[in-house]
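Hi support team,

I submitted a single chain yesterday and got back a structure, but I'm not sure I'm reading the token output correctly. Could someone confirm the output below corresponds to the sequence I sent? I've pasted both exactly as they appear in my results page.

Thanks,
R.
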Amino acid sequence: MSHSAAERQALVEALLEAGDRAPTLCEGWTTHDLAAHLVARERRPDSGPGLVVPLFAGHTERIRRAYRRRPYAELVELIRTGPPRLSAFALPGVDAAANLAEHFVHCEDVRRAAPSWQPRVLDADRQDALWKVLSRMAPSALRRSSEPVRLVRPDGAEITAGPSGPAIRLHGEPAELLLYVFNRREAARVDFDGDPVAVDRFRALKMGL
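Hi R., thanks for writing in. Yes, this is the structure output for that exact sequence:
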């Protein structure tokens, strides 16, 4: 099973356990809203542009709302079974490349919105896979930072982004650093090191994803 497939399974389990009215870390969305987003993303390619281009956001939201009217159990089953055969996400390698971060982050959106959550214990291979995703995304996600940034995992490996100069450091497991870069800042377990003023400026920054 690929890492993306394993995270899809974990996401489905989290959605089923939470039920259709549970809060998520996606502001204003319940688990039912989130499930509708996930199904629309995989099954309606015309909804994709609106996820990144504000001009098309209204069209994307109308598609999501149409799926939102379907029963929650049906949506979760569509997530579990994966993209339809003619979806771009069904092409060899696309699911693994495009969905690992999507599935992991949204799984944690469900889990970490619940009281008394605890981080999942992820094996080293999964952490390494998330680190690879982070290394690809960090330069773009942190492009708005006026501070040089180093993302540091427990073994000392680093990803550097932002302008040159003395850097602030974010320390954490790859999974936690990825959540922080995806703007799940309050739920991500990371530690900061660096000039306190620079750290405060960085903590107020909305990432560019």
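A quick pointer for reading it: The first helix runs from residue 3 to 18. Let us know if anything else looks off.

Best,
Support desk
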